[in-house]
Request: fold
Amino acid sequence: MAEVREAQEHRSLVIHADAAVRGNPGEAGIGVVLFDIDGRVVEEFGRFIGTTTEHVAAYSALIEALRAAIALGADEVQLQSASDLLVRQVAGTQEVRQGGLQPLLVETRRLLLRFRRWSIQLLPREATKRPGELANLSIDRQRNK
Reply:
């Protein structure tokens, strides 16, 4: 019975995704934390993604978070980000003006189709502190190689 309970806990996830960029463009990392509906961390990770802009890095973090949620079997996600631009564009209240972001928005929307239900919300940066830490740690690790 415990296995069934565990599987059900991951059907609905809260996602905090953030990025860190040192310079703009500059060295970039992403950080992702996925929570179950009770606020427990299900998975977290950071990854160095090379040199890019802050907006591309924010989209990259969200895309990797959505892929992780799909891999965990989630069918509902609550996306929470400190990136105002990202939230507005994904929500459809702001057009994409930078050509390089359009394919990332298309990929984000393609991934969102995999979920029965989703929402996106803007949070203050301090509320999404851990993903930022993970993103910065990934840059630090890359620099120390």
Q: What stands out?
A: The domain at 2-140 is CATH 3.30.420.10 (Nucleotidyltransferase; domain 5). Residues 1-9 have pLDDT under 50 and may be disordered. The chain has five helices and five strands.
